[in-house]
Amino acid sequence: MSNFESAVEWVLENEGGLNETVCHADPGGLTNFGISLRFLREVPWDRLRKYGIFYNDMDEDVIRSLTREQAINIYRGEFWDFFRFSEIEDQRLATYVFDTAINPNPATAFRCLQRATWTYFGYESLKDDGVMGSKTLAKVNACGILLMRPMMSERAGWYRDHANGKFLDGWLRRAYREPV
Protein backbone atom coordinates (compact mmCIF):
# COMPACT_ATOMS: atom_id res chain seq x y z
CA MET A 1 0.00 0.00 0.00
CA SER A 2 1.26 3.45 -0.91
CA ASN A 3 1.48 6.33 1.53
CA PHE A 4 -0.60 9.49 1.04
CA GLU A 5 1.57 11.78 3.15
CA SER A 6 4.69 11.42 1.03
CA ALA A 7 2.67 11.61 -2.20
CA VAL A 8 0.86 14.79 -1.23
CA GLU A 9 4.14 16.44 -0.24
CA TRP A 10 5.40 15.78 -3.77
CA VAL A 11 2.23 17.29 -5.27
CA LEU A 12 2.43 20.36 -3.01
CA GLU A 13 6.07 20.84 -3.99
CA ASN A 14 5.10 20.73 -7.66
CA GLU A 15 2.06 22.98 -7.25
CA GLY A 16 3.43 25.63 -4.90
CA GLY A 17 1.21 28.12 -3.07
CA LEU A 18 -1.03 30.94 -4.22
CA ASN A 19 -0.68 31.62 -7.94
CA GLU A 20 -2.42 34.75 -9.13
CA THR A 21 -0.09 35.55 -12.01
CA VAL A 22 -1.47 33.06 -14.51
CA CYS A 23 -5.12 33.10 -13.56
CA HIS A 24 -6.23 34.75 -16.84
CA ALA A 25 -4.20 32.48 -19.11
CA ASP A 26 -4.79 29.27 -17.13
CA PRO A 27 -8.16 27.58 -17.71
CA GLY A 28 -8.16 26.56 -14.04
CA GLY A 29 -8.01 30.20 -13.00
CA LEU A 30 -6.61 31.33 -9.68
CA THR A 31 -5.01 28.47 -7.73
CA ASN A 32 -3.63 27.88 -4.26
CA PHE A 33 -1.67 24.69 -3.51
CA GLY A 34 -2.84 23.52 -6.93
CA ILE A 35 -6.53 23.82 -6.00
CA SER A 36 -8.43 25.94 -8.51
CA LEU A 37 -11.63 27.90 -8.09
CA ARG A 38 -13.08 26.02 -11.06
CA PHE A 39 -12.41 22.71 -9.30
CA LEU A 40 -13.82 23.81 -5.92
CA ARG A 41 -17.03 25.00 -7.59
CA GLU A 42 -17.60 21.38 -8.67
CA VAL A 43 -17.20 19.88 -5.17
CA PRO A 44 -20.54 19.42 -3.34
CA TRP A 45 -21.09 21.70 -0.33
CA ASP A 46 -21.27 18.82 2.16
CA ARG A 47 -17.79 17.69 1.17
CA LEU A 48 -16.42 21.25 1.19
CA ARG A 49 -17.63 21.61 4.79
CA LYS A 50 -15.80 18.38 5.63
CA TYR A 51 -12.62 20.09 4.41
CA GLY A 52 -13.30 23.18 6.52
CA ILE A 53 -14.64 25.39 3.73
CA PHE A 54 -17.82 27.17 4.83
CA TYR A 55 -18.25 30.04 2.37
CA ASN A 56 -21.64 31.08 1.00
CA ASP A 57 -20.14 32.37 -2.24
CA MET A 58 -17.46 30.40 -4.03
CA ASP A 59 -15.19 33.18 -5.28
CA GLU A 60 -11.49 34.02 -5.49
CA ASP A 61 -11.37 34.88 -1.78
CA VAL A 62 -11.99 31.20 -1.00
CA ILE A 63 -8.87 30.26 -2.96
CA ARG A 64 -6.80 33.06 -1.43
CA SER A 65 -7.73 31.94 2.09
CA LEU A 66 -7.27 28.22 1.46
CA THR A 67 -4.90 26.70 4.00
CA ARG A 68 -2.32 24.02 3.38
CA GLU A 69 -4.25 21.69 5.69
CA GLN A 70 -7.47 22.24 3.75
CA ALA A 71 -5.67 21.55 0.47
CA ILE A 72 -4.21 18.33 1.88
CA ASN A 73 -7.67 17.24 3.06
CA ILE A 74 -9.12 17.99 -0.38
CA TYR A 75 -6.38 16.00 -2.08
CA ARG A 76 -7.01 13.05 0.24
CA GLY A 77 -10.79 13.03 -0.11
CA GLU A 78 -11.28 14.09 -3.71
CA PHE A 79 -8.30 12.26 -5.22
CA TRP A 80 -6.24 9.81 -3.13
CA ASP A 81 -9.05 7.90 -1.41
CA PHE A 82 -11.63 8.30 -4.17
CA PHE A 83 -9.35 7.01 -6.94
CA ARG A 84 -7.65 4.18 -4.97
CA PHE A 85 -4.06 5.44 -5.20
CA SER A 86 -3.10 3.59 -2.03
CA GLU A 87 -3.68 0.33 -3.93
CA ILE A 88 -0.75 1.05 -6.25
CA GLU A 89 1.97 -0.92 -4.50
CA ASP A 90 5.03 1.01 -5.67
CA GLN A 91 5.21 4.32 -3.76
CA ARG A 92 7.07 6.27 -6.43
CA LEU A 93 4.65 5.19 -9.14
CA ALA A 94 1.63 5.94 -6.93
CA THR A 95 3.05 9.40 -6.21
CA TYR A 96 3.68 10.07 -9.89
CA VAL A 97 0.22 8.92 -11.02
CA PHE A 98 -1.38 10.93 -8.19
CA ASP A 99 0.54 14.01 -9.36
CA THR A 100 -0.67 13.35 -12.91
CA ALA A 101 -4.25 13.16 -11.64
CA ILE A 102 -3.80 16.64 -10.18
CA ASN A 103 -2.25 17.99 -13.37
CA PRO A 104 -3.73 17.45 -15.85
CA ASN A 105 -6.67 15.39 -14.41
CA PRO A 106 -7.63 11.90 -13.18
CA ALA A 107 -9.02 10.47 -16.43
CA THR A 108 -5.91 11.50 -18.34
CA ALA A 109 -3.67 10.10 -15.59
CA PHE A 110 -5.37 6.72 -15.79
CA ARG A 111 -5.35 6.65 -19.61
CA CYS A 112 -1.62 7.38 -19.56
CA LEU A 113 -1.13 4.64 -16.98
CA GLN A 114 -3.20 2.15 -18.93
CA ARG A 115 -1.27 2.92 -22.12
CA ALA A 116 1.99 2.56 -20.21
CA THR A 117 1.01 -1.03 -19.33
CA TRP A 118 0.76 -1.80 -23.05
CA THR A 119 4.57 -1.70 -23.10
CA TYR A 120 4.55 -4.98 -21.17
CA PHE A 121 1.18 -6.59 -21.90
CA GLY A 122 0.31 -5.41 -25.40
CA TYR A 123 -2.28 -3.07 -26.79
CA GLU A 124 -5.26 -5.42 -26.46
CA SER A 125 -4.56 -6.29 -22.81
CA LEU A 126 -6.26 -3.28 -21.27
CA LYS A 127 -8.68 -0.68 -22.53
CA ASP A 128 -7.57 2.94 -22.06
CA ASP A 129 -10.89 4.03 -20.57
CA GLY A 130 -9.48 6.42 -17.97
CA VAL A 131 -10.87 4.40 -15.03
CA MET A 132 -8.71 3.06 -12.20
CA GLY A 133 -10.43 -0.29 -11.91
CA SER A 134 -9.33 -3.64 -10.54
CA LYS A 135 -8.00 -4.84 -13.90
CA THR A 136 -5.89 -1.69 -14.29
CA LEU A 137 -4.57 -2.00 -10.73
CA ALA A 138 -3.62 -5.64 -11.29
CA LYS A 139 -1.64 -4.80 -14.45
CA VAL A 140 -0.02 -1.79 -12.77
CA ASN A 141 1.05 -3.78 -9.73
CA ALA A 142 2.40 -6.58 -11.92
CA CYS A 143 4.78 -4.06 -13.52
CA GLY A 144 5.42 -1.67 -10.65
CA ILE A 145 8.19 0.87 -11.12
CA LEU A 146 8.85 -0.42 -14.64
CA LEU A 147 5.87 1.72 -15.69
CA MET A 148 7.54 4.98 -14.65
CA ARG A 149 9.32 5.75 -17.93
CA PRO A 150 6.43 4.81 -20.24
CA MET A 151 4.09 6.76 -17.93
CA MET A 152 6.34 9.82 -18.18
CA SER A 153 6.33 9.54 -21.95
CA GLU A 154 2.55 9.25 -22.11
CA ARG A 155 2.08 12.26 -19.81
CA ALA A 156 4.56 14.39 -21.75
CA GLY A 157 2.80 13.43 -24.97
CA TRP A 158 -0.51 14.58 -23.53
CA TYR A 159 1.03 17.92 -22.54
CA ARG A 160 2.55 18.41 -26.00
CA ASP A 161 -0.87 17.78 -27.58
CA HIS A 162 -2.91 19.94 -25.18
CA ALA A 163 -0.77 22.59 -23.50
CA ASN A 164 -0.86 26.29 -24.08
CA GLY A 165 2.66 27.24 -25.23
CA LYS A 166 3.11 29.41 -22.12
CA PHE A 167 2.88 26.38 -19.83
CA LEU A 168 4.46 23.66 -21.96
CA ASP A 169 8.07 23.93 -20.72
CA GLY A 170 7.05 23.79 -17.06
CA TRP A 171 4.65 20.93 -17.63
CA LEU A 172 7.26 18.93 -19.53
CA ARG A 173 9.71 19.46 -16.65
CA ARG A 174 7.01 18.14 -14.34
CA ALA A 175 6.29 15.18 -16.62
CA TYR A 176 9.93 14.08 -16.63
CA ARG A 177 10.57 14.70 -12.93
CA GLU A 178 10.59 11.44 -11.00
CA PRO A 179 9.60 11.21 -7.32
CA VAL A 180 12.37 10.00 -5.01
Task: Describe it.
With 180 residues, the protein is an all-alpha fold. It has two domains: 4-80, no CATH class; 89-175, no CATH class. Helix content is 58%, strand content 2%. It has helices spanning 4-15, 37-40, 45-50, 60-64, 68-80, 91-102, 106-121, 134-143, 148-162, 165-175, and strands spanning 31-32, 35-36. A two-stranded antiparallel ribbon has the order 1-2. A hairpin with a 2-residue loop joins strand 1 and strand 2. Helix 7 (106-121) crosses helix 9 and helix 9 runs antiparallel to helix 10 (165-175). The mean pLDDT is 94.
List the helices and strands and how they pair.
Elements: H1 4-15, E1 31-32, E2 35-36, H2 37-40, H3 45-50, H4 60-64, H5 68-80, H6 91-102, H7 106-121, H8 134-143, H9 148-162, H10 165-175
Antiparallel strand pairs: 1-2
Helix pairs in contact: 1-6, 6-7, 7-8, 7-9, 9-10
Précis, in short:
With 180 residues, the chain is mostly helical. The chain has ten helices and two strands.
Which terms would index this structure?
single chain, 180 residues, mainly alpha, 10 helices, globular
User: What's the count of strands?
Assistant: 2
Shape: globular
Termini gap:
17 Å
Decide which structural class fits the backbone.
mainly alpha
Low-confidence stretches: none
- Calculate Rg over CA atoms: 16 Å
Largest sheet: 2 strands, antiparallel
Order of helices and strands: HEEHHHHHHHHH
> Number of helix segments?
10
Helix amount, in percent? 55-70%
Name the assembly state: single chain
- Spatially, the strands of the biggest sheet line up as 1-2
Round the mean pLDDT to the nearest integer and report it.
94
Per DSSP, what share of the residues sits in E-state strands of 2 or more residues?
under 5%
In total, the number of domains comes to: 2
